Amino acid sequence: MKTCSLFIKTLLLYLMIFSLYSCKKSDNRPDYPAGSQENINSWILDSMKVYYYWNAGLPGNPVLNTDPSSFFKSIKNSADRFSALVNPDLPESYPPSLVHTLGFDWITLQTSDGQVKTMISLVVPGSRAAGKGLVRGDIIQTINGTVPTAANIASLTNNSILKQSTDLELVGKTGIIQVQRLINSEDPVYTYHVFQSGGKTYGYLFLNSFENTALSQLKRAFAYFKQEQVQELILDMRYNPGGSVPVAAALAVMIAQNTTEAATFVEYRGNQKAGVRKSSFGAELSKLPSGLNIGFAGFSGYRLNLNKIYVLTGNHTASAAELLINSLRPYITVVHSGQQTLGKDMAGFVIKDYRNPQIVPKWEIYPMIFKLYNAAGRGDYSNGLTPDQITDELTVLPLKPFGDLSDPLIQSCLQKTNMVAGQNRVESTLERPRVIFDSRVPVDLKTGLTISRPY
Asked: How far apart are CA 85 and CA 366, in angstroms?
């Protein structure tokens, strides 16, 4: 079955350009009936042969008469953790997360004395959960009337997601708190403020994603930091799963003094057909929606005259957040504290059947297509970015509010103000409880640097 001829314009993240390709069968397979497993899997295979980063390793003649989800898994490269095949009629192909359903996350821990505790790790500001009084660090006594344990926390989480509602009893709080589905959209900038320490003025900003909606608050925060004459900046991205590359570029321009409009922000390296392309700060900013793009000069007007930046990360920090850290390094000293990041050093875009009428409706491929590198040609962080100061927020319980000066990650910055990035790696000796369950794990697999296909 022939698929449509494709002319790809601005393929990667609004910038990459592919040549003219004809995505068609590479063998003599018959035209299978529409909707059949062979038809769907042929389309998957043909698409992956063109765009997939590891396309050279795809099987030549795989078995096509099998479930598409199983077929997709069978042809993925063993090094590929993030490519996905999604169908809205099959919820198991794109499992929902607790935070995107109810507006908060929880973790289950086992402390050194053997106690098992389930604790709120994040609450979305403005969500119903926040409105009901849930705060980070709350310890949960019961979930829907059941005491959470290592054995049942996964099922309690799944049931809460399916019901889109949960009843919680919390230590130190009276009554049952019922939390229903999150309605309000999330503002990626959770909080920002200024404080004094060691004779210096610090700015602190918690950023939970790189969505376009973050830009107005980022500008407001940096205007406030500039007004307060901030000398040191702490950027907290410990749970940030990524988002828009142009938004990351805009934030980089606001942070780093040495960037120019023509300087390289990111380099994309694809398969033999995609090749290698460098994308400048100006080129990325030009892809912002017209109402949000104030240009390089506009974003650079928010700069704070910094010579270094402190960045806080965790195991869930991924994608555009990792890209920002790596892409800043050629232009400003980055002092990285926290935990090793997730290691999503790749980008892609959604592949659908754009024909009218569709022959393969509903199925969507989210393949990994490009490896990401900075202006110095450094990348390959699929195992994650390793901090200069390895510190874990779980060493001080209950978890502190974001921006609290007693938080271990913030303390690592204040205690190591003279640390040289990448040279004085220090690991905290405080004891860390064992994580039994983390409701945020599904978010790690659902996020990435993806764009809509530009036709």
From this structure: 6
